[in-house]
Amino acid sequence: MSGADAVAGAGGRALPFDAVLFDCDGVLADSEGITNEVLRGMLGELGWHLEPAECVRLFVGRALKDEAPLIREHTGFEVTDSWLADFRRRRNEGLRLGLREIPGAGAAVRAVQAAYGDRIACVSGADRPKIEMQLAALGLAEAFGDRVFSGLEYARTKPAPDVYLAAASALGVDPSRAAVVEDTVAGVTAGVAAGATVFAFAPGDVAHTAPEALLAAGARTVFTAMADLPALLGA
Q: What does the angle CA 103 – CA 18 – CA 114 come to, to the nearest 5 degrees?
């Protein structure tokens, strides 16, 4: 993108994007491992015993209700609203006890915010109470304000692009001029389908997706440390 196409940042410097859209889980909140262990435990109670990496591969970044057929196939159990509510309750208890930020995420968000102002948003496939609880716990609620979007509030959540298209529209930007920060195949797929440029976070731990899978899904680049993100975004 040329300098003529770029927008001006807070300091009058040209920026390569019109907006930056952050996923939450695994990008800002170090929550995937906690959620994964709760889900593994509940699936184990149904007789389906998964290794951590396999559970991540099958479920991370996707709405659990959308994976009901897969759960039924392996357990014979029909996922109910009551079971999903129990999962969310147990998940939230774990998050309240053990949630931490992804190392450097807070500083990265504040650096990007300093450059992009209110042209940033948190765009997650999770339910809104979870997103808002985590942003508040991490001290990031003020940075995003009311620019928080839940994929579960749209007809289709990730890997469909709906929530990213909605966020771009709310910010008044063309989605092709937005940068998306993601860490899952479902999220990268959603960002690419929306027409955005996707930067994929892959720190190499068991709770995150392998870089090769993120690149295959269409990410422009993969980075391993949140401290590198502001420079990648021209902030």
A: 45
Angstrom CA distances, 12 to 6, 27, 144, stand at: 11, 28, 21
* Helices 81-98, 32-45: inter-axial angle, 10-degree rounding: 140
Distance CA 143, CA 107 (A): 11
In sequence order, the β-bridge partners of residue 182 are: 200
Model confidence pLDDT, tens digit, residues 66-80:
899 999 999 999 999
pTM of the model as a whole = 0.86
Distance between CA 70 and CA 77 in Å, rounded?
Answer: 10
Nearest to 29 by CA among 110, 132, 116: 132
Whole-number Å distance between alpha carbons of 120 and 165: 14
pLDDT digits (tens, 9 = 90+) for 91-118: 999 999 999 999 999 999 999 999 999 9
